[in-house]
């Protein structure tokens, strides 16, 4: 049996119009090909779909049953085609976003809000992970995109992992210092000004970022004394507020307004806290494309 959707569409037009001539006009075809398709459909099914006399034109019992089934089938097919096109445009699907916690104090929430507004049928989830864990999750296809900060991954390392990394938000590092510290009275300081202060940092083995910040201190002329390491920026701020040391954190951290802590800009050559997005190069990921087109509206990026 060989029945195609075109035959069902032709049959439905004839059934609804109750006229071959009107159906042919509606379908923008001549009447003979239409009649041939209906006869072919009846032959394939082995039933009569219409009773025809010189004065009447009616559906048979089988024809009435097919009319209902064909209408539902064609409606489902239209819905399927529409859904497939929406999926191709990234309007339907799932997006798993890896992110470092400090990025949620910056522009990421607004970005996610815009994405949800433009693509309400996409389900997205946040996975708060350190850069190392995001890297492994991206390679294992457990997340679709990842956000983390400096330093940028080397191009050859990204290529070997079939990943791409793009700069999405620029930001500098500032010094988080106890509000009672003498330096806290300044509007801004130099990085060398905290030489000799106990340094509070994220775990040095958690990612390359804290090691990068230590190297920035060395480049500024001093070797910082690491007093304590922590897993979360909030823990560092709590220790700064208790007067246990200073911490280097992204400027957007100051939006938290942590009690007993001042956030001082660094005047000369502040370390970068730039935020990067990392995502797979290979494979067709329409939802990722849609997300990137919001992130880079004037510079669409292939996912």
Automatic annotation (TrEMBL):
The record, for Pfam families, names:
HTH_1, LysR_substrate
Highest taxon above the source species: Bacteria
Does the UniProt entry include the keyword Ion transport? Answer: no
Stretches of the chain forming a coiled coil according to its record:
none
User: Which UniProt key words apply to this protein?
Assistant: DNA-binding, Transcription, Transcription regulation
* PROSITE patterns named among the record's database cross-references: HTH_LYSR (PS50931)
Q: Where is the HTH lysR-type domain?
A: 3-60
UniProt record similarity statement: Belongs to the LysR transcriptional regulatory family.
Protein name stated in the entry: LysR family transcriptional regulator
């Amino acid at each position: 049996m060989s029945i195609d959707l075109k035959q069902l569409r032709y049959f439905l037009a004839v059934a609804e119009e109750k006229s071959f001539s009107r159906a042919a006009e509606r379908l923008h075809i001549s009447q003979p090909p239409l009649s041939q398709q209906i006869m072919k459909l009846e032959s394939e099914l082995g039933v009569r779909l219409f009773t025809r006399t010189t004065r009447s034109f009616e559906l048979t019992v089988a024809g009435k049953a097919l009319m209902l089934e064909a209408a539902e089938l064609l409606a489902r097919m239209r819905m399927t085609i529409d859904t497939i096109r929406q999926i191709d445009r990234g309007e339907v699907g799932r997006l798993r976003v890896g992110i470092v916690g400090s990025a949620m104090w910056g522009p990421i929430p607004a970005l996610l809000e815009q994405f949800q507004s433009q693509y309400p049928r996409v389900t997205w989830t946040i996975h708060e992970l350190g850069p190392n864990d995001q890297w492994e999750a991206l390679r294992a296809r457990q997340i679709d995109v990842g956000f983390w900060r400096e330093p940028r991954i080397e191009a050859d390392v990204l290529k070997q992992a079939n990943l791409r990394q793009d700069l999405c938000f620029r930001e500098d590092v500032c010094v988080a210092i106890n509000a009672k510290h003498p330096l806290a009275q300044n509007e801004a300081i130099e990085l060398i000004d905290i030489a000799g202060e106990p340094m509070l940092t994220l775990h040095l083995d958690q990612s390359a970022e804290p090691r990068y910040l230590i190297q920035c201190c060395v480049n500024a002329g001093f070797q910082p004394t690491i007093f304590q390491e922590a897993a979360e920026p909030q823990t560092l701020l709590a220790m700064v507020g208790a007067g246990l040391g200073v911490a280097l954190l992204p400027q957007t951290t100051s939006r938290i307004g942590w009690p007993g802590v001042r956030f001082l800009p660094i005047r000369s050559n502040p370390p970068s806290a730039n935020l990067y997005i990392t995502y797979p190069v290979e494979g067709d990921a329409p939802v990722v494309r849609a997300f990137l087109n919001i992130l880079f509206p004037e510079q669409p990026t292939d996912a």
